[in-house]
Amino acid sequence: MADSLPALAFLGAGSMGGAILRGVVASGVAVDGGITATNRSRVSAADLADLPGVTTIALEERPDGNRDALASARIVLVGVKPGMVPDLLREIAPHLAPDAIVVSLAAGVTLATFADALGADVHVIRSMPNTPATVGKAVTGLAAGPASTPDDMALVRRLFETVGAVIEVPESQIDALSTISGSGPAYVFLLIEEWTKVGLGLGFSEADARLMAEQTFIGSTALLEASGETPTEMRRRVTSPKGTTERAIAVLQDAHLEKTFADASAAALARARELAAGA
């Protein structure tokens, strides 16, 4: 277990913010001063009410809830939708503690946007986590802002390590990272969907087809992790010469999967840049 963390404020604990929050709670790490989370609606706030050590605020009931959440927070995670970020930053700028570290969870919002709203001297770190944080299996990219210190990065790294693995990158690589790990869970789920359809087409029940597809992915990734080998080597071991798997792999390779995956990543990267430009 990691050392204890300082007080946390999640401003916008929806899909991604909520995943990180739940992952931190599930990790069991001590949070000195507790965790405060804000959401616009009562319903969203109520979804977090059962989490131990979490104070949840509905802004429709407490319009100054964001300010209240900042009162004792050392790490402030901004998890509202990208288009809402500038207004939120202007709202909180006068109320940040002098030693606060502001962590962006917002896709496509640059460190420059944060500096413009908060001031160039505020310590800001841009993050790109993914939703497996909920089960402690995230990959999170972290990019340091100009005013953030190595100690800031070490502290925020420790926070995200409670929910998975962390990669430190320059901001110029954050969007590229998002096309792999940020969008990646959806790619995996799509593959499982398609293999489940194959199972149905081969005459299996929906329950059995889904079980085969899901557990094969889960088991294979667990085997890869436990082996310490590369995916290429593990594939070689499963692919017997002149066997059934070799024949199937040949079909997949003939489909030019390398180009398909590259094209998909390029499309996601182009959209990330559009979001950053406000499109």
TrEMBL record:
Domain of life: Bacteria
Catalysed reactions listed for this entry: L-proline + NADP(+) = (S)-1-pyrroline-5-carboxylate + NADPH + 2 H(+); L-proline + NAD(+) = (S)-1-pyrroline-5-carboxylate + NADH + 2 H(+)
EC top class, as a word: oxidoreductase
Subcellular location: Cytoplasm
Record-linked Pfam families: F420_oxidored, P5CR_dimer
Pyrroline-5-carboxylate reductase dimerisation domain segment(s): 171-275
EC number per UniProt: 1.5.1.2
Boundaries of every Pyrroline-5-carboxylate reductase catalytic N-terminal domain copy: 8-108
Key words of the record: Amino-acid biosynthesis, Cytoplasm, NADP, Oxidoreductase, Proline biosynthesis
Presence of the UniProt keyword NADP in the record: yes
Chief location bin: cytoplasm
Keyword Ligase: no
Classification via InterPro entries: 6-PGluconate_DH-like_C_sf, NAD(P)-bd_dom_sf, P5C_Rdtase_cat_N, P5CR_dimer, Pyrroline-COOH_reductase
Pathway(s) annotated for this protein in UniProt: Amino-acid biosynthesis; L-proline biosynthesis; L-proline from L-glutamate 5-semialdehyde: step 1/1
GO molecular function, one term: pyrroline-5-carboxylate reductase activity
HAMAP family registered for this protein in UniProt: P5C_reductase
Physiological role: Catalyzes the reduction of 1-pyrroline-5-carboxylate (PCA) to L-proline.
Similarity field: Belongs to the pyrroline-5-carboxylate reductase family.
Protein name: Pyrroline-5-carboxylate reductase
Organism annotation: Microbacterium galbinum
